[in-house]
Write a structure and sequence with these properties.
The chain is of the alpha+beta class. The chain contains 5 helices and 8 strands.
Length: 206
């Protein structure tokens, strides 16, 4: 009886060991699946859109833009998130991630040859319907590679058509409208929406 009881006890121990190993293996499998599957679940915020980089799509980009909400990607895909909220850029900014040229005003000569320094501010946002094109052409560098240099160039071209006396008379609204009229279609062409252009300060002879 004692020997039989011992054999029964050994059999029960093996069952517990097998059961424990099974649980451990199941836990490891679940952990591995969680590590690999979790990144496939993403949430797009109310002021965001997503571009899906996919190995399964022509050109490597899924043509469907991810709108606000919860989404699940496929293996081999990742999402690049873009903010759709309005952005205010100021040429006098020192606390923004806009590159070393962020604190430089637009410097040019007026129509009558007077050197002028003009600080400005503009409000813009990405065009959500064109975000795939924006990604293809600019990735996430459009603030430093497009917005800053292009706006500065257009400001100088438009404002240089005015004389120093016109600048001194503070015809700001007229100049602002002239710059906006030139800048808005350029922004649109490169998948951004320009909402406002505003002059902060004009200094003649600077």
């Amino acid at each position: 009886m004692t020997d039989l009881s011992g054999r029964k006890g050994g059999f029960s121990g093996r069952q517990l060991l097998i059961g424990g190993l099974s649980l451990l293996l199941s836990g490891c499998i679940i952990l591995v699946l969680w590590v690999f599957v979790r990144p496939l679940f993403i949430t797009i915020g109310p002021d965001e859109v997503g571009v899906v980089i996919s190995a399964f799509s022509p050109g490597g980009i899924n043509p469907t833009v991810l709108l606000p909400g919860n989404h699940m990607l496929q293996f081999g895909e990742r999402a690049e998130i873009f903010k759709t909220s309005r952005v205010v850029y100021s040429s006098t900014s020192t606390d923004c991630d806009c590159g070393s040229s962020a604190s430089r005003a637009a410097v040019f000569k007026t129509k009558d040859g007077v050197k002028t320094s003009l600080n400005y501010q503009l409000t813009y946002a990405i065009n959500p319907e064109k975000v795939i094109n924006l990604y293809r052409e600019w990735y996430h560098t459009y603030p430093t590679e497009f917005v800053i240099p292009v706006s500065k160039r257009v400001v100088m071209e438009a404002a240089s058509q005015y004389t120093s006396s016109a600048m001194a008379l503070m015809k700001r609204s007229e100049i602002e409208q002239a710059v906006f009229s030139r800048l808005e279609p350029v922004f649109s062409e490169f998948h951004l929406v320009l909402f406002e252009f505003k002059i902060d300060d004009i200094q003649l002879g600077k």
